[in-house]
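Below is the record:
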Amino acid sequence: MRLVVLGSPTSWYLADLRRAAGRRHEVLSATFRDLESSLGAAGVGVRSAGTNLHDADAVLVRSMAPGSLEQVVFRMDALAELQARGVRVVNPPRAIEAAVDKYLASARLRAAGLPTPRTAACQTTDAAMAAFDALGGRVVIKPLFGGEGRGVALLEDAAMARRAFALVEQLGGVIYLQEFIEHDGGDLRLLVMGRFESNDAFADARVLGMRRENPLDWRTNISLGGKAAPLEVTGELAGLACRAARAVGAPLAGVDLLPGRDGRLYAIEVNAVPGWRALGRVTGRDVAALVLDHIAAGLP
């Protein structure tokens, strides 16, 4: 398999994939910044830094570099062109668009019948203050786009909440709020690798998982000091994770589940560019090799 990895050329994940690939697969590096396309008599061409992505068997999206609205739309369009011409793109551009947009992802999860925190999205401070009260006066504010816990804050004071909402409004952003779910300081991260069939069923799914805890912060992200611990992936957990991945259309997904003190398991987010560094250490599995096998198995 000839695999092009879209991400940083110095990424640990690129190096890990190359290690796992050995001589079985060719793993090439490309970046979104260098992505370009040509439309001519020969058809559509998509390249990055001299690499013709049409020559790849598959493209793995390993990062979403910051960019303007025009740049992001172009990047997704280019990935869609590759997919339309038979190159396997993991994850598909539609899945990336859904997962990276927290509002859309939450809507998809709720439509799929998964328990999710009560959520509000608005554009004005007054509307956000009304939502703050309706959600119990204790809310989590998150940037609509972003990951690894960046920009996420717990708001419990009305005056502080108003200042935060006013700043987002002033910057022309969307104020995205979720009720704070009472929990015991940990959540679950599950990595789902599956295959969509013609009827949208999710088949041949493999699910790995870990528990994340952070004694110093209510946010459990490993990048913010969270610690990973082993997790027994039960049938219930695997089923919820697969439903969440299917809801956003991602055959390779990181799913965050939060065990609430009310006894419910809440689907918090779906990551369409999931990492596996901590997961590999906790499970003792060669996750990069599993990812390569998963991608190769989906080729014609």
Remarks:
- The longest strand covers residues 202-213.
- The chain has a mean pLDDT of 91.
